[in-house]
Every structure is written in C-alpha cells, then in structure tokens.
What does this fold into?
Amino acid sequence: MANQKLTDLSELGTVADDDFCYIIDTSDTTDGANGSSRKAQAKNIRGWPKTAAETSAGVTPTAYQFAPGDVRRYGAVGDDSTDNLTAINNAITVMNTGGGGEVFIPEGIFQSTDTIVMKSNVHLRGEGSKSILKLANSAVGNLDTTTGDPAFVLAKSASFFKISNLAIDGNDANNSTLFNNLVTSLCTDFQIFHIEQNNAYGSAYQALTCSEFQLTGWYIHEITGASGNPGEGLYIRKCNNWTISDMLGVDLDDHLIYLSGTTTTQTVDGVITNCVGTNCGRTSNSSAFNALDGVRRVTLSNCHAYDCKRGFTIIGTADGTEDISYIGCTAYNCDDATSPTGFSISSASDNHQRIRYVGCKAYKSGMATASAAGYGFNIQDADDVSLFNCEGSLSNYDGFYADDVTKLRVIGGSFRSNGEEPSVT
It folds into this structure.
C-alpha cells in the first residue's frame, strides 16, 4: 500500500452519505506544494449539505446535487407518472421554515395526487410553460376542500408569496368531478405572474377574501364547466386592492373574469387592463367580463371580448355595483342565443350606480344568431350612467338601448344598427 498511486486504488461501488472521503485541498499548501489532505462526508462532496431549515422542517434531502429549494433535491421527478406531492410540499415547507426562498420547478411534467400547499414568503418558480404541475388521474377526491370546492394548488392565510413561470394542468379528462386549479383564500400581498392554466373542471383560479395582490401575464384555455361552477377563468370574490393585467382566455365555458361581493364584504378597488377573452361563455351563454352584486370602484381598460356569448355585463339582484369604469374596451361578434350584447347593465332592484363607458365599441352583436335581438349597449335598471365617445354598430337590433335609467348621459359617439336609431324608454 505504501506509495500506491490513487489511480491504482480499487473502486468502491457504493458510498453512503455518512462515509468519509479524502480529498486534496489545493488552496492549502501547509502539507506540501500540491496541497493538503482533507476529509469530508460523501453527501457534502456530492453537492449542497443539509441546511438548518431542512433540519428544522424535519426534511431530509434525497439528492444533494440539487440546491436547497429545487424540488428534485427532495425526490421530485418530472416524468408524468411519479407522484411528486411530498417532494414539492417538502420543498415549500423548507423554504417557509427558513424564513422564505425560492422553490424551483424545472422543465418536466410533475404529477401530484393531492393538494400542493403554498406558504408565506415562498416563491414557487418554474422555467416557463414546460414546467408543469399536473393533477394525477382520479385525484380530485384527495384534494383540500377547506375553502369550498376542491383545490389542486392552494394558498390559505398566506402572505408575501409568488407563483411564476409555470403551467398548471388540471387533467380534467381524467378528473371528472368539480375542482379548481388554483385557489388563494384569506391571503394578502402576493403576486402570480406568467402562468398557463388549462384543463380545470371548474375554475382556473379563485381569489376568496384576499387583498393587495397582482395577477399578470396569464394564458388560460380549455376550462370546462361543472354543476355549481360553470368554468371560469378568474373568480374574484370579496377582495380589495388588486390588479389583473395581460390575460388571454380562450375556449372557456363561462367568464374570463367574474367579480362578486356581498352587502357586507364587497370586491373593491381593482384594476383590470389589457385582457382579452375569445370564445368565452361557450356553454353558459355568459360574458367574457362580468360584475355581480357587491362590486365597487373597479376600472377596466383596454379589455376586449371576441366571439364570446356576451361581452361586458353588470348584473345583480341584491347589493348593486357602483363606480365601474370601462375605458377603451371592445366587444366583437357576441352571439348569445337569447341576449347577445356587447355591453349591458341589468338588475332586479335598480341598484347599479355611477357606471362609465369611455371610448368603448360594440360591433356585430347578434349577427351570428339572427333570431335574438342583439344590442351594442343595453343599459337597464341603473342610476347615473355615462357614455363618452362610444360606438355601437352592425348589431342586428339596436346599437344603443336604455330603459329605466336615471341620469343618463351620452356624449359623442355613434349608435346605429340595422337601420335602428338609439332607443331610450
């Protein structure tokens, strides 16, 4: 053994994490010009050592070559078959326990048989639409229901978190029971951006009693309806101080964006900008953008509805909607079989107030369904409504119709469809 060369040593087939290996530290020449001998445990040579946060969380890595927070470190495999529930939730728990950090989802299809639970101060980040979280086959019965409908990815009572640059696939072809892809409940101060959502059998996203959040850069497609939840893109309920921007929704059974509140807890102080819905409301005869009861102080700008059943609607039965502004919005070719309308207000109790349309345009309402009366603007049961430089044209009935409206102002614009003059009753 004396003076034996390293190249002559026999190879050890298996090295346990706790085995010691000898290495040469070339930065330390105490023992000679070529460096000094050191020893280290094999797991530390392989990559990142176990962190204090992992110890505190009771999580032991299985692949030390990956950095803390990388889901592969905890056993995740993006092969579209492995159940990655424990690995992903462990990564989130570790980052949360350490005071915050990034959980990384690399490219791949990472299935999960149960709810992935987001926590405060964690950034769940992928590499783009090829980083996919996918609900496993027949998994809906396992999902968390504490917020109502089953949720695949859930943040509850969390704050200061982010979700970005990944796709969420609800796999509704193999999960035929109602569920939602992503739910935030009782959360504050969060951002969700650059997300692709598809194949939910319910809603792509629900925000329930949340505040101070931003949603931007989403692509939502193929959201299917279910009993009690007809297939929305975004459902925003009882939330305040929020922004939604740069959304594209395609082939949704119901609304792209649906706002609602209650008499005591409204959805308030929101901005929706640069959002487009195409073929929305395909099975429910509903609009791309809808505000129900209890919505206050919301502005929609540069939003567009193309080939949807209806464009922009305000409806209600109890607590009205107030201080809503539409700026530079367009509804094109709305073709609901019963009431194809670009922009509409309706209520059973005449309680919508201070609604503004500025530079909005509605084209070809009802032209695809000639048996139904199509309106560019259909304003009913409201108080203090203003239209500035708006246009309603090429509809199969009225470009503009108003009934039971108090304080109606129409300044500039053009409204003529099928030879009909604007109608006010």
